[in-house]
Amino acid sequence: MDISARTDYAIRALLSLAAAHRSGSTSLSAESLAREQDLPRKFLEAILADLRRGGLVVSQRGSAGGYRLALPAEELTLGMVVRTVDGPLAEVRGLRPHQTAYEGVAQHLPVVWVALRASMRHVLDGVTLADLVTGELPDHVRGLAEEPDAWLPR
């Protein structure tokens, strides 16, 4: 799985918004989010527009304006963010995994593609912004990260 810069930046900006909310701030400007996370401001503004259209953030104009989460951090999953900024979690040549079909020796490959999507869903839909802000990740995610070869490149 390739995690795009759009997804990475979107999650980092949303984490900043979630943390700000926890500390009592009402909203943050795109400029302050970009500065806090060391992100390119113009690119972040485009991502924030996607997040706003997707219903994950709300924006307010004016001197006291900025962005804030549209939902509680406990309800916003990483899967929601990925789908909002990058589309479906898994595609095979532009098709959803369950839409693929092959003949002959590759006939069982769609089962693997569907299982891969299910695995990504299990992790990304099981982790919320609140989990990341507090560091209290679900046991199944911690378990995967603690597997002996999880941190080794292949």
Give a concise summary.
By secondary structure, this protein is mainly α.
Can you describe this structure?
Helix content is 50%, strand content 5%. The protein has 154 residues and is mostly helical. The protein has a two-stranded antiparallel sheet with strand order 1-2. It is globular, with a radius of gyration of 18 Å. The mean pLDDT is 94.
Primary descriptors:
7 helices; two-stranded antiparallel sheet; globular; 154 residues; 2 strands; single chain; 5% strand; mainly alpha
Question: What is the count of β-strands?
Answer: 2
Largest sheet: 2 strands, antiparallel
Tell me, what's the shape? globular
Helix content: 40-55%
Summing up helix and strand content along with how strands pair, one would put the structural category as mainly alpha
Spatial order of the strands forming the largest sheet = 1-2
Task: Write the topology of this structure.
Elements: H1 5-22, H2 30-37, H3 41-53, E1 57-60, E2 66-69, H4 78-86, H5 109-124, H6 129-134, H7 139-145
Antiparallel strand pairs: 1-2
Helix pairs in contact: 1-2, 1-3, 1-4, 2-3, 4-5
